[in-house]
Structures are given as C-alpha cells and as structure tokens.
Amino acid sequence: MGESVSSLVQLDTVSRIYAMGQTDVTALSAVSLSICAGEYIAITGTSGSGKSTLLQIIGCLDTPTTGRYVLNGTRVDELSDFDLSHVRNHQIGFVFQAFHLLPQFNVCENIELPLLYRKLTSQQREKKVKEALGKVGLNKRGLHKPHELSGGERQRVAIARALVGSPSLLLADEPTGNLDHKTGEEIMHIIERLNAEGVTVVMVTHDLEKAQRARRRIEMQDGRIL
C-alpha cells in the first residue's frame, strides 16, 4: 500500500460529524495525528473537546465521516464492520473507567473473553491468561468473581484482558477515574511499566498531573488538536 509502518497510527484530516435531528454536530474537525510504536501519549481536554471521540476513532469503535486512518499499515477507515471487529480483537486492547467486567464470570474467564474469537486451543488460551494475570500481579485471584475484588483489582483484570491478545495498541479511557489516589497510582505504575516493555499506550485523562507523566501530551479543544 506504500504506507509507512513506522507510524503505528496515522490519522489524516479526520473529521467525525454526528447528525442530531436537523443539526450536524462536529465532534472532530480535520484532525491529523501520527503515533509511533512504543509511544505513551495522553489526550486531555475539557468535556466535549473531542478527546473521547478521537480515542473511539483510534480504537475502531467509530469510523471517520471524512479523512483517512491507517493502523499498522492498513487503511482501516475503508474496512467493513466485520473486518473492523477483527482489527479490534487482534490489534487493540481497551481499558475503561468502569472496568466492564462480566459479573457472572470469574477473573480468568473475563480475561479469556477476547481469545474466544481466535482459533486457539483451551491450553493455549489458559497459558495466555496465566501470563496476563502475572503481568498485573493477580496470580492468586483467578477464580474470584468481580464482586469479590477491590476497584484496583478489577482494573488490573481489565488491563490483563486488554493485554491477553498481545495487541499493538493499548487504549485507556480515564483508567483511574473510579479509583482512590493510592490505587490509581498503582494502576499508573502498571501502565508505565507496560509502556517501558514496549506497549504503545494512548490514554484519555482529565487529570493533568497524570497526563504530564506521559511522553507526549495532546490537548483537544472544539474537536481539534491544539
């Protein structure tokens, strides 16, 4: 395709416009952004600035109205919904503020979920889940249900689930927003360690102190990068 794979993420004049009744609302306006493999980026901005929409576009949870998006050498803005789901499952890990764990499943089963869409044996899945548990320090909590865990432990499970498929990109949306300061620090240290090990991290946060710990900060305002 002639695309440079040195940029893991390449957005070129990407806009996202939502139809709200008779009115069009521009959430992103001609945003261009390049993210290299191994970077650690924080996206900041006030509510409604476009930071969450930008993260959703990067994560292939939404598609641009106009513009082009190349992820890891593939033009993803032109893919079908089926192909986009394949990209999300194989290349992107998500960590959300609200954890999004399934209460009826234990820790190991929650972490294993992304692997169920891949052609892996149960032994292969079990090995990957065990490795992911080790990365977040929850080896002894695998059989517990989410309600038996603290908030920090639940977020560790969410991070392990995001990592279990060895994604190219880890996207974190306010990952410490529901946690106290001490627990939030523990989660930040895990994210920073993962980045030091080579994981590309893009984090949305309203916390400027945490944003300044990233290697690069992107500030959004009115759907644009300042």
TrEMBL record:
Keywords: ATP-binding, Nucleotide-binding, Transport
InterPro entries, sorted: AAA+_ATPase, ABC_transporter-like_ATP-bd, ABC_transporter-like_CS, ABC_transpr_LolD-like, MacB-like_ATP-bd, P-loop_NTPase
Recorded superkingdom: Bacteria
GO MF term list: ATP binding
Pfam family, one: ABC_tran
UniProt protein name: ABC transporter ATP-binding protein
Phylogenetic placement of the source organism: Bacteria, Pseudomonadati, Pseudomonadota, Gammaproteobacteria, Vibrionales
Keyword Ribonucleoprotein listed: no
Presence of keyword Transport: yes
Record-annotated ABC transporter domain positions: 9-226
Classification via SMART domains: AAA
